[in-house]
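2024-03-11 09:14:02 DEBUG pipeline.ingest accepted 1 chain
2024-03-11 09:14:02 DEBUG pipeline.ingest length=333
2024-03-11 09:14:03 DEBUG pipeline.predict start
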Amino acid sequence: MKTYIHEIRENDHVDSSFLVKEKSSGVTRNGNPYLKLKLTDRSGEIEARIWTSVEAFEGSFERDDFVLVKGKAVSFQDRLQINVTHIEKLKEEEIALSDFFPMTEKNIEEMLQSLIEIGQQVRNEHLSQLLRLFWEDTAFVEKFRIAPASTWLHHTCLGGLLEHTLSLTQLVLNNASHYPGLNIDLLITGSILHDLGKVDELSYRRSFGYSDEGRLLGHIVLGIERVEAKIRQLPDFPKDLSMLLKHLLISHHGQYSWGSPKRPMTLEAVMLHYLDDMDAKINGIKQFLRAEVQPGSKWTHYHRAFEQFFYAAEPWDQTEPPENIVKNILEEE
């Protein structure tokens, strides 16, 4: 049974799995070697020391390995650490990634099925075929269903990319009909595919970070590459439709300063950008409010990306949409 770091107390006997975030060696005043570790899981991190059998343990695991640790929690200089008596490397199939990284609170399989079903509403045969190729790509789907949407700003959790994509696509469905003349099929397809390059841009098997191609190319370029590769499998795919779809992807950040190669130049691109930006910002602020409200205060710490503080107001009890509220008021009268 997994024991989380935030549950460990002084004098506890520890027997649980952790991720090795840092590993270094040292020598005591008496000249004896020891290993200094920093262990993590989804609840936090803790220092650890190996004082005995150092030579036997040193080569048995490395930084970024999952390990089984046995030992005792002690207090050293007012900080908790584990004195390790046994440590062994674990295979990835022996652990649950959700024990080590934040996980979406929503059901991944249900979200994926909902997104697929929305995509099935696309009536344009070329866009429908394109989406089908992505859903039939099991390697892509496996990455897409588990990837985070960012390393820290919004939807920073396993399954976060899928959650954000579904949320954006639902926003498109809820708002596009308000503005006659928009290409709904193009918008649905663009919303489903807008961030697909993040499956290659981000690394998330050991910690949330960036791959080499993610740093050098970015998710917009990587996403365009994936879309173009699928379109090549559809020889009758119209060139103009391909251009409009790719424009949605390359312009969805909206501004050059936000990493967008082009600014939105179609109505569909404008809508996609603003809805994407809103979904990311609302989730990111809510994420920040949960983690950064100062004790005894209703204010967060300073958010460096938004360049401001946020006020943590009490949540409203209102759950009904306005039309139902109006309807209820009229019935009472």
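2024-03-11 09:14:41 DEBUG pipeline.report The longest strand covers residues 13-27.
2024-03-11 09:14:41 DEBUG pipeline.predict end
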